[in-house]
């Protein structure tokens, strides 16, 4: 029998009895960042492929949500800081070793990029709109002229944004549940899937809707494959990671993970989408909502459970 | 120069004097602490043993907290000390997550705080406050690069361990066992 107790009465808030330094702000941001990355990725992808006309929701309409999503996400990140007024110090250094520094700088690139992208398509939303300021018209003109190169920058930065949401966690070797390199790709695919769900939900065009339904199905498949790999990796790893995996295999997070994320967030929407593709009438908002909800629960329990996992010494 | 702390678990009685000395010396806010004492009991009666350890920041050679800090507030000082520059810390919590020893905490004034090996005392030629008050003299502090130093000698002649070496942090707090 092994027992370890702190006899000097250490009770540091948010550290003891279990680590809880990150609350709802970080997982919410991870979800919104992934969602924004997903929407931007498809907008850029189909611009590069030259299919703007066929897929108006993916390339134009859905991207109008992105600046709002990113601003809410950034605000959540800001709330997480304990020394809020010093947030600007993120932008006085570039630290290549620090995932959070990467994230801060990528957001600094992606947020303006998404706003510029929307400015150029603003007339789609409000026809005959006249920009009151000259430089906005200048931006619009330039973006429309260099749309393809811009799409290339956006596709790369959206992948970095999406994958970063996972790497932020996986770079912490002190938390065995996060310390796995599959987390980056898993969060990226999950983010793309939520992005596809939003596009699917907003689209009024049958062709576009079926396309994103199919894309989403493939992404769900990849996600399940990654989740299986995640647990194979844990169970074939060291004692700390085996212990961490137990949180999901009989531990406190078993039901929220397998029930909330895997069944409700992946399997049920996949079945609904297959039924829809076979001609059954299913309101598209239903699978889309489940995917978004599953993606959000996934981030919340990964952040929560990760803080419970630790090295045993 | 490589600062190191060597703690003799055979001599420690778990009085927590080191904890109180640190709280006093470093004006640690009430309800917080930078060091703490662990009682590790193992075995089944009658084959039981107890190990007492005074734990704190390990001032790792390969510090995950320095690596993940987005502003550079967490940094190495002379002698391998790991310190936080308060006015550069934004309190993002990344270093707290990165520490396998949970040695860092969020100070109510909005920055992350932890043991400094009493850097301010070292500069005056004094020992860290926890070491200086230990009534059983089970704690030693010195330079590992100095072959004459007590810490170097102890690590040469006694069995020792560091905490969670498998994380790869290369801690600078050693426990004699």
List keywords for this structure.
heterodimer; A: 313 residues; mainly alpha; Formate dehydrogenase/DMSO reductase fold; 12 helices; 68% helix; B: alpha+beta; Alpha-Beta Plaits; two-stranded antiparallel ribbon; 10 strands; 27% strand; NrfD-like (chain A); Electron_transfer_protein (chain A); transmembrane (chain A); membrane (chain A)
Walk me through what this model shows.
The complex is a heterodimer of chains A (313) and B (177). Chain A is mainly α. Chain A is 68% helix and 2% strand. Chain A has 12 helices and 1 strand, in the order E-H-H-H-H-H-H-H-H-H-H-H-H. In chain A, helix 4 (99-120) runs antiparallel to helix 7. Chain A starts with a strand and ends in a 5-residue tail after the last helix. With 177 residues, chain B is of the alpha+beta class. Chain B has a domain at 14-135: Alpha-Beta Plaits. Chain B is 21% helix and 27% strand. Chain B has 6 helices and 10 strands, in the order βαββαββαββααβαββ. In chain B, the strands form 4 sheets. Chain B has a 4-stranded mixed beta sheet. A two-stranded antiparallel sheet of chain B has the order 2-3. In chain B, strand 2 (36-44) and strand 3 (47-55) form a beta hairpin. The chains are: A mainly alpha (313), B alpha+beta (177). Chains A and B meet through strand 1 and helix 4 of A and strand 2, helix 2 and helix 3 of B. Strand 1 (2-6) of chain A pairs antiparallel with strand 2 of chain B.
